[in-house]
Amino acid sequence: MAAHQRLMNMMFGTICSQVVGTAARLGLADHLGDDEIGYQKLAARTGTHPGALARLLRALAALEIVVETRPGTFRLGEAGMPLRTDRPDSQAAAVLLFTDPALLDSWKLTEEAVRTGQPTFEGLYGTDFFSFLATQPELSQRFNATMRQVSLPIAHLVPVSYDFTRYRTVIDIGGGDGTLLSQILRGARALRGVVFDSPTGVAEALSTLTAAGVADRCRIEAGDFFAAVPEGGDIYVLKNILHDWDDERCAIILERCREAMPAGGRLLIVESVLPDVVDTSDPAPYLTDISMLVNMGGQERTRYEYEQLCRRAGFAVTAVHPTVFPTSYSLIEATPV
Ligand SMILES: C[S@@+](CC[C@H](N)C(=O)[O-])C[C@H]1O[C@@H](n2cnc3c(N)ncnc32)[C@H](O)[C@@H]1O
User: Fold this and answer.
1) Residue 284 in 3-state DSSP?
2) CB 23 within 8 A of CB 29
3) Of all atoms in ligand 1, which is nearest to the CA of residue 200?
4) Ligand 1 site: residues with CB under 6 angstroms?
5) What is the pTM of this model?
6) CB-based contacts of 105: which residues, under 8 Å, 6+ apart?
């Protein structure tokens, strides 16, 4: 593709995101289901302006989210299937979250974030992202659903990439609704687990752990990982936690883990680890990194940067395991020194 065309397509990314986000908000994928439907009928079902909806559907067809089977009639395309909320691989909550005004507002000030190195979310909302979530039950539920949807593929890879059967108790710090812990416990029948997160973070954990059939081997605990984390684990897992925070706050979380674990305990950091030199085959981790800058004040890190973080909090990295199927994720194992 010519350079100028690639650049223009990137500029249009923001419009694509609004088109897909609007489709999700209108529930178009659920309305279409397995059917072919004319735009007028869809407009009646969604309470939208027929002409405007026809134009949205044409844009969605151009993006291959839907297919125009004959003039004015549409069915769901392959790329649109994950917008259905009834599928196990649904990404609908993630689309709704990432196009939510609260997250989009910060992007208007990206230049400011790059000039100052500070997240713009806090300036706009007067608090950090997770404290804000605690005051927004609907958004918090959507965040938890998003984490479940985006974490599920990695949650399946973690227990096959790392041997948990040698441990007795795994504690998932910031474990959200227990999606990862469920997979770990399913793969190690004698293992017990604790899912630890904020009160809003663990709100859906019982139903996830029950559905996975591991609730009887699991405890759910709410708290603040900057204050204290549960004691008694021989392995503490942190998946997509450290990338939310700056080095100072990461060091506090890691120190709380070190205080809670026995001598010889293990830390397992599960994160997308940036290569030392940019890998252009997958822009996702670099874009997530900017999202962390703007919304959270966190960052994606290289292996060396994780090693430095661990050292600062009194841990030494003992091994780095890539996931068994290639992803940007690695499992960084560390032990107290
Ligand atoms: C990016 S999510 C990761 C969730 C889960 N580990 C995963 O990978 O799917 C970050 C998690 O940290 C939790 N969290 C944020 N601040 C916290 C705090 N102060 N104490 C405990 N948990 C917190 C959030 O509720 C959220 O579940």
Assistant:
1) helix
2) yes
3) 25
4) 130, 147, 151, 174-176, 179-180, 197-198, 201, 224-226, 239-241, 244
5) 0.94
6) 121, 124
